[in-house]
Write a structure and sequence with these properties.
Blueprint lengths: L4 E5 L3 H13 L3 E5 L2 H11 L3 E5 L7 H10 L8 E5 L6 H8 L3 E4 L4 H14 L5
Parallel strand pairs: 1-2, 1-3, 3-4, 4-5
Helix pairs in contact: 2-3, 3-4
Length: 128
């Protein structure tokens, strides 16, 4: 059985590194993208089990990436956990409208991230 593969998308390399180290420590296989276009390409070619997606990125927002993932029959089943430092009251609703499973506000603890990932992986029909 292959390890669970998670695509981490954030335009800040330090954030990607922090999340990747946290997930690697839990036995997850991590692939990284630093922009929306790369994220969409990797989602199709790598078929991750879950996507951790930053909302505020240049050129293409996380909302747009999530909407495109959910519109693509090849990637629509992949759960998306959005992360954002924008403490905007509409961010949670906007994330859900885009198709995300949940929104975590930065800064979040590694334990909180792992709990949300495990929760959404267990609810994913592909995880069975």
């Amino acid at each position: 059985m292959r390890p669970t593969k998670i695509l981490v998308v954030d335009d800040e390399p330090d954030v990607v590194l922090f999340i990747a180290r946290t997930l690697n420590g839990e036995g997850f296989d991590v692939i990284s993208a630093y922009d929306g276009i790369s994220a969409l390409d990797l989602a199709e070619t790598e078929a991750p089990d879950l996507v951790v997606l930053d909302i505020m990125m240049p050129m293409m927002s996380g909302y747009e990436v999530c909407e495109q993932l959910k519109a693509n029959p090849q990637t629509q089943h992949i759960p998306v956990v959005c992360v954002s430092s924008a403490h905007n009251p509409n961010a949670r609703d906007r994330s859900r409208e885009a198709g995300a499973a949940t929104l975590l506000l930065k800064p979040f603890s590694p334990a909180e991230l792992i709990a949300q990932i495990k929760r959404h992986l267990s609810q994913s029909p592909e995880a069975v």
